[in-house]
Amino acid sequence: MRLLLIMLMGFNLVFGLEILAKSFEYNKTKRLAIFKKDVNATKQKDNILSDIMYLYTTPQKKIKKIIAIGHVRFIFNDKNDTYKGKSDKLTYLALKDTFIFEGHVYIKKIKANQDVTGDKVIINRKTSLVKVLSDDNKPIRFTLEDK
């Protein structure tokens, strides 16, 4: 059974973010919330699923950074398209509106009908910049299909 933690009501009101998990810890000094087991974070049309999620906040109670680890699945939107995929780790830097995906990354741009795989993919939603990196001289894969 999924547990929506009452303490998150404050997060939800401040961030417009809802997080479901089976386990929750909060360290007020570090401004760090840790969610474990079947984590499901949703904000508007964006969604992240993972085994563990770390949510860091600023002193002003705004999201600073989110780190999702283990069986990460996601869907999010930018100005032009919807991205759907998976990775071993996802880091979201809120102030830069940038996603960093690491480990066995696969991302599909739905409207553009493009997909990419690599070891590390960085997507900045403000600038629409996408950067794909590969470790150990392994090739990245980019596919563009006709509609």
Describe this structure in words.
- By secondary structure, this protein is mainly beta.
- The chain has a single domain (8-144), classed as lipopolysaccharide transport protein A fold (Sandwich), CATH 2.60.450.10.
- 5% of the residues lie in helices and 62% in strands.
- It contains one helix and ten strands; from the N terminus they run H-E-E-E-E-E-E-E-E-E-E.
- It has one helix spanning 8-15, and strands at residues 18-20, 23-27, 32-43, 46-57, 63-77, 82-93, 98-109, 114-124, 129-133, 141-144.
- Strands 1, 2, 3, 4, 5, 6, 7, 8, 9 and 10 form a ten-stranded antiparallel sheet that branches.
- The relative contact order is 0.12.
Short synopsis of the structure:
The protein is mainly β and 147 residues long.
Which class of secondary structure composition applies to the elements?
mainly beta
Taking Cα atoms only, what radius of gyration do you get, to the nearest Å? 16 Å
Query: Order of SSEs, N→C?
Result: HEEEEEEEEEE
User: Roughly what percent helix?
Assistant: under 10%
**CATH fold-level name:** lipopolysaccharide transport protein A fold
Instruction: Detail the poorly predicted runs.
Output: 1-14
Looking at the structure, what is the overall shape? globular
CATH superfamily: Lipopolysaccharide (LPS) transport protein A like domain
- Beta-strand proportion: over 45%
CATH architecture name: Sandwich
Average pLDDT = 82
The figure for the number of domains is 1
Q: How many extended strands?
A: 10
Distance between the termini: 41 Å
CATH class: Mainly Beta
The quaternary state of the protein chains shown equals single chain
Give a short account of the largest sheet.
Answer: 10 strands, antiparallel
The helix count comes to 1
